[in-house]
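REQUEST ID: PR-0412
SUBMITTED BY: lab tech R.K.
PRIORITY: routine
TASK: structure prediction, single protein chain
INPUT:
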Amino acid sequence: MQTELSQKLGVEHAVFGFTPFPAVAAAISRAGGFGVLGAVRYTDPDELKRDLDWVEAHVDGRPYGLDVVMPAKKVEGVTEADVEAMIPEGHRQFVRDTLAEHGVPGLAEGEASGWRITGWMEQVARTQLDVAFDYPIRLLANALGSPPADVVARAHDRDVLVAALAGSARHARKHKDAGIDIVVAQGYEAGGHTGEIASMVLTPEVVDAVAPLPVLAAGGIGSGQQVAAALTLGAQGVWLGSIWLTTTEADLHSPALTRKLLAAGSGDTVRSRALTGKPARQLRTEWTDAWDDPAGPGTLPMPLQGLLVAEAVSRIQKYEVEPLLGTPVGQIVGRMNSERSVQAVFDDLTRGFEQAVDRINRIARGSGQS
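STATUS: complete
OUTPUT:
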C-alpha cells in the first residue's frame, strides 16, 4: 500500500492511524503505518511530554505525528473560567437531572474530572505544540481545519508537514490557500466531528479541488478493500481512527464500553452535538438521545457543551453506566467485532488490499473475477 506520500514520509503502508493512545500510535508506526497521537486530552504539558517520550522510545525509529484541536483564528485572553461562566444554569440542571434519572454516582470529594475538552483553547493547544516541536514529529494534523498561520510557519520551519481535516471541497480549498500540505477528506461516515458528505462523493471532489496536494481519505474505511477504493478515488492514503478502539493495545479502561463497541452494528451510531457542541459521530446512547430530544434544552455551541458535560462524562465512564456510556466512533464499528492487535489489523488490511487489487486487475484484463 505504497503511494508518493507514504514514500516521502518513509512508511511502508499509506495508512495514517489517529488514536488517543500512545501504545496504539507506536504500534501503528511499528506495523509500517504512520501513527498519529491525539493531543486534545492533554491539558498538562508534562503528561504530553511523558507520553511522547514513551512513543519515541517504542516506534523503533519509525515516523509519527501529533493531532491537535485548534481554531484557525487566534483567540487570546479567554480563560476556562470565562467560558464556564457562559453556561446557563438550565443546562447544568438538565445534566444533573439526567444523571440522577440513571442513578449515576458522583465523583469522590476532591476528585477532578478526568475528561475535559479544553485542548481547543489557544493557550492549551500552544503549550501542546511547545512540547511536540521538541520531538522529531513528521506531521502536525488539526481536527478543526487550518491552524493559525504562525503555527503552519512554525511547523514548516521544522520540516513538519501540516494536515487539516475537511468535510467539503470548499473547506479543502481554504486549507490549500492557507499553505496546508495534506488535506484529510473526512466523510459523513467517520467518527468524531464530520460534515454531511459521504466519503465516496467527498474524496474525489477534494482530490480535484486541491490538486496536486495529497489527500487522505477518512470515514467508512476499515478493510483493505476500502483502502483500495480510496486510493482508486485519487487519495494518497487513508486516515483511520475508529478501527483502533478495539485493538488490544487500546486503553479504554472500560470493559463495558469495549463490549458495546464489539456488539454495535454500523447503524448504531449517531451524528450528535451532545459531546462537544459540534456534530460528532458517536455511539447512540440514552445520553445522546436526551440531548437530541426536542423537549430538552438543546446543546450549547462549542466549547461550552464540552465543558458542561465534562464531569458527567467522567462519571458515566468511571461507573460504566451502560445506557449512557458511549464514545466517538464511525460507522465502521460494524466491522469491529473482535479484539485484535494493531499488527493483526494491518495484516487484514494488507491482505484485503491485495485481494481487491487482484480483482480489479482481473476485471481490467477482461478475465472476470474467478
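NOTES: The mean pLDDT is 92.
REVIEWED BY: pending
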